[in-house]
Amino acid sequence: MKITKDLYQGSLALLTDFYQLTMAYAYWKSGKAEQEAIFNLFFRKNPFQSGFTIAAGLEYVIDFCNNFTFNKGDLDYLSEMKNSDGTVVFESDFIEYLREMRFTCDLEAVEEGTVIFPHTPLIKVKGPLIQCQLLETALLNITNFQTLIATKAARVALAAKGDSVLEFGLRRAQGIDGALAASRASFIGGCSATSNVMAGKLFGIPVSGTHAHSWIMSFDTELEAFKAYADAFPDKCIFLVDTYDTINGIRNAIEVGKILREKGKEMLGVRIDSGDLAYFSNIAREMLDEAGFEEAKVVASNDLDEHIITSLKIQDASVSIWGVGTKLVTAYDQPALGAVYKLAAIKNETGDWEPKVKVSQQSIKINVPGEHQVSRFLKNGRAVADMIFLPEYRKGKISATIIDPIDPTKRKRISFEDFEEVSLLKPIFKKGKQVYNCPEINVIKQKTQDNLLHFDKTHKRLTNPHVYPVGLEENLYQIRTDLVFKMKNYDKE
């Protein structure tokens, strides 16, 4: 499915911060535009104080790169930009350079639905410096949001313990695009359906929904409203029972359910959208069972998230289906992932790659230099550790020590022959040509579930999760440390 064609009608090259264009111009002016570079997109902390993160957004990234050109309208806009003194910001030869520029980078990425961790590259871009730089903002915009929402959805689904979770967030999402991207990422993370019909059309996600309180209020009585809805949708009746009085609403739903049964149809269930969900769901279950509707489901909504669902589970709430909206699609308790995009290496005049590092007083903000790869090691289907490494230091070795990039006292020895090894970064583009076929969204969703099964339940618990070991191979760790010392000029003190 070509997302960009359906959503955006062409190139999004101007979906960027202005300083990306000023840097691009300066690269061009200084003769560095075509110098080869490597950038990595990664995040520093799991969101929501989670023990894991779910990668999402790659299909959007692919469409963005496939359509990455500056069209006439873009170039006209840029050519008309003026400095404060009235001179043009970008000279005409640079505008012509952009007109001819096409995406020619190599791009590797972690597949959507993969469980990932801090400091691991989600995306690695290798190519002309100017192109790598111009991709930064859009790739971060796409990946930050969808990865955040997919992770939130996975946490909600884990809390639901196998119950169906419906994404109901369209009306509370941050704009049209935010709603669509959130619906997609929520499905990848573990939701079974969405209320967002456009997302259903564009992405092939199942859509779900019944009626609102306004439907009930438009009739003289609740019972009359339920009967009319049953006439319209005899095979899809889930009645919203809390418009006036929840217990009486359940009675009315049961009465209409009996009428449906006489016609050979079955009421699917009731939905409760307010009040004490534990109490009313248990009352609903008892009333439905006593009336012979043991198969009817109790659906709960009302500002749910993984913590409220966990609490309701502890209280033995009789809920079978969870409708989750605002707190999912807005990532209510953490509105941004905080992924960054950093230069890791640049090719010098002799054709050699020079590793690059950003130095900071905060060790968490020091990036991993060089053209590195990432492997996950598994034993008997259980993930043991992830290793970030430089391939040239891996050759011929049968084991390695990985070192936590923030706390060097945390180390783990890995014997390669004892584990199954999986490479996390997959080739997506070669010299600007797509070499990766995007899976169907149902396949991506299943990948999320399969990936989560590789991890111990202690890594997946919602609070105070056990930290999964991710480390730099010891040679890479030493290279980074030496480079930091060099950049800080410690040898001159």
Supply the CATH superfamily name of the largest domain.
nicotinate phosphoribosyltransferase
Number of helices: 17
The order of strands across the largest sheet is 13-12-1-5-3-19-20
- Biggest sheet, open or closed, and with what strands and sense? 7 strands, antiparallel
What does this structure look like?
- By secondary structure, the chain is an alpha/beta fold.
- The chain folds into two domains: 3-150 and 335-492, nicotinate phosphoribosyltransferase; 158-329, TIM Barrel (Alpha-Beta Barrel).
- It is 38% helix and 19% strand.
- The strands form four sheets. A seven-stranded antiparallel β-sheet has the order 13-12-1-5-3-19-20, covered by helices on one side.
- Strand 12 (340-347) and strand 13 form a beta hairpin.
- Helix 4 runs antiparallel to helix 5.
- The longest helix is centred in the N-terminal third of the chain and has 32 residues, at 129-160.
- It is globular.
List keywords for this structure.
single chain, 493 residues, alpha/beta, TIM Barrel, 2 domains, seven-stranded antiparallel beta sheet, 21 strands, 38% helix, globular, disordered N terminus, Nic_PRibTrfase_pncB, Nicotinate_pribotase-like_C, Nic_PRibTrfase-Fam, EC 6.3.4.21
Give the SSE map.
Blueprint (H helix, E strand, L loop, with lengths): L2 H5 L10 H12 L6 E7 L10 E2 L3 H9 L5 H8 L12 H9 L5 E5 L4 E2 L6 E6 H32 L3 E4 L7 H15 L3 E2 L2 H7 L9 H5 L4 H11 L5 E3 L5 H17 L6 E4 L4 H14 L6 E4 L5 H9 L6 E4 L1 H4 L10 E8 L5 E3 L17 E7 L2 E8 L9 E5 L7 E5 L4 E4 L1 E6 L2 E2 L6 H13 L3 H4 L9 E4 H14 L6
Parallel strand pairs: 6-7, 6-11, 8-9, 9-10, 10-11, 15-21
Antiparallel strand pairs: 1-5, 1-12, 2-4, 3-5, 3-19, 12-13, 14-15, 14-18, 16-17, 16-21, 19-20
